[in-house]
């Protein structure tokens, strides 16, 4: 078995290639989806505005990814507490800034790129879980000592994200926590009970917030309010239907022309369906399936428990977000603000996701061979 600091092997080339393909598709589709609205926006008047920002974030993210590919992932352990504290400070700092569309999720200072601390919080929880569970061992099988403390810590971060009016990312944090605990060996009876509690918490989060309840009602019947809460989903379905099998052609979407609000963000998958058709959507879904498969393989072959749990958590974050985003765009679940990893517009999210992929690729370099 290799030891921390030993010579590393080659990276998982399939995983690396898949990530780079997703990033490339994302940059192209952000430009295609945003060029019309950016050009006719009186404050921008530049069709390449979002392209330049997304491409810049991609370059920065790729740089961070190569740094974390070369850095032994075990070194992250000693910085975990510091990263957790910094994340809490950032999550609190968002409340010092004006809300955008009723939510406080971003830190914007002058002309600098905005920072979204909730994107970092997802991975910080994974870092904490991997480090702590490795030390806990068989005690994880107890409920009060083994499982509840992790739910409290994860719930604390999820609660702070929820206070920013971001139920979707808070849900991702809790779902990923349950996945990591299950893989680590928590009892199935405990996990089924906790899944029920998390589900009830999610239902409560919808029921006690009027705008979320309206979104859920519009999901059940979007045509009941086609110009209100059901508008975005209807336009998304129209885009997907218009694309057919082969699509209308890259750059030829009609729904991006002020029909779908901010089409380069959470609903970019519907623009992919309209322009590249069922074929394009299938390719994107296949790329995510390959990424998840190689993430699972990396977790199974990791040389220690810490690497296994870290790979599991990172892969789960990407998998859960991709599943939720595609389900929302296709009308399979209520509308929620979960971006499509590597593809939706968002420089902070892209850079952090690529950094996490670098850690996953570093784990793939340190396999346990028989």
Automatic annotation (TrEMBL):
Pathway assigned in UniProt: Cell wall biogenesis; peptidoglycan biosynthesis
Membrane topology value: Multi-pass membrane protein
Keyword Ribonucleoprotein: no
Keywords: Cell cycle, Cell division, Cell membrane, Cell shape, Cell wall biogenesis/degradation, Glycosyltransferase, Membrane, Peptidoglycan synthesis, Transferase, Transmembrane, Transmembrane helix
Gene Ontology BP, a term: cell wall organization
Any one GO CC term of the record: plasma membrane
InterPro entries assigned: FtsW, FtsW/RodA, SpoVE
E.C. no: 2.4.99.28
TM regions (residue ranges): 12-34, 54-70, 82-100, 106-130, 142-161, 167-184, 191-208, 276-297, 309-330, 342-363
Main location class: membrane
GO molecular function: lipid-linked peptidoglycan transporter activity; peptidoglycan glycosyltransferase activity
Enzyme class: transferase
Catalytic activity: [GlcNAc-(1->4)-Mur2Ac(oyl-L-Ala-gamma-D-Glu-L-Lys-D-Ala-D-Ala)](n)-di-trans,octa-cis-undecaprenyl diphosphate + beta-D-GlcNAc-(1->4)-Mur2Ac(oyl-L-Ala-gamma-D-Glu-L-Lys-D-Ala-D-Ala)-di-trans,octa-cis-undecaprenyl diphosphate = [GlcNAc-(1->4)-Mur2Ac(oyl-L-Ala-gamma-D-Glu-L-Lys-D-Ala-D-Ala)](n+1)-di-trans,octa-cis-undecaprenyl diphosphate + di-trans,octa-cis-undecaprenyl diphosphate + H(+)
Subcellular location(s) per record: Cell membrane
Role of this protein: Peptidoglycan polymerase that is essential for cell division.
Stored NCBIfam families: ftsW, spoVE
Entry's family note: Belongs to the SEDS family. FtsW subfamily.
Protein name in the entry: Probable peptidoglycan glycosyltransferase FtsW
Organism: Clostridium muellerianum
Species classification: Bacteria, Bacillati, Bacillota, Clostridia, Eubacteriales
Name of the gene: spoVE
């Amino acid at each position: 078995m290799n030891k921390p600091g030993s010579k590393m092997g080659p990276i998982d080339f399939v995983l690396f290639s898949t990530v780079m393909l997703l990033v490339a598709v994302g940059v192209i589709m952000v430009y295609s989806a945003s060029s019309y609205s950016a050009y006719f926006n009186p404050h921008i008047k530049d069709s390449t505005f979002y392209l330049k920002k997304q491409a810049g974030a991609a370059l920065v993210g790729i740089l961070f990814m190569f740094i974390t590919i070369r850095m032994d992932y075990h070194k992250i352990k000693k910085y975990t507490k510091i990263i957790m504290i910094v994340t809490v400070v950032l999550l609190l700092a968002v409340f010092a800034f004006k809300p955008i569309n009723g939510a406080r999720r971003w830190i914007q200072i002058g002309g600098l790129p905005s920072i979204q601390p909730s994107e970092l919080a997802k991975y910080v929880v994974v870092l904490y879980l991997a480090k702590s569970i490795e030390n806990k061992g068989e005690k994880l099988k107890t409920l009060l000592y083994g499982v509840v403390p992790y739910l409290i810590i994860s719930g604390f971060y999820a609660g702070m994200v929820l206070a920013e009016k971001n139920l979707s990312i808070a849900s991702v944090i809790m779902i990923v926590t349950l996945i990591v605990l299950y893989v680590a060996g928590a009892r199935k009876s405990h996990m089924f009970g906790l899944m029920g509690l998390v589900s009830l918490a999610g239902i409560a989060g919808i029921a006690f917030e009027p705008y979320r309840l309206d979104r859920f009602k519009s999901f059940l019947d979007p045509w009941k309010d086609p110009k209100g809460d059901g508008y975005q989903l209807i336009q998304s379905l129209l885009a997907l239907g218009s694309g057919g099998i082969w699509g209308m052609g890259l750059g030829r979407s009609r729904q991006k022309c002020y029909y779908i609000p901010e089409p380069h963000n959470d609903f970019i998958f519907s623009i992919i369906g309209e322009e590249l058709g069922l074929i394009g959507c299938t390719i994107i879904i296949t790329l995510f399936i390959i990424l998840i498969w190689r993430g699972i393989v990396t977790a199974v072959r990791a040389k220690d428990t810490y690497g296994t749990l870290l790979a599991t958590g990172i892969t789960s974050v990407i998998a859960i977000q991709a599943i939720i985003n595609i389900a929302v765009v296709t009308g399979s679940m209520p509308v929620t603000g979960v971006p499509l990893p590597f593809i939706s517009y968002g420089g902070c999210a892209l850079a952090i996701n690529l950094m996490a992929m670098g850690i996953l690729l570093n784990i793939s370099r340190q396999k346990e061979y028989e």
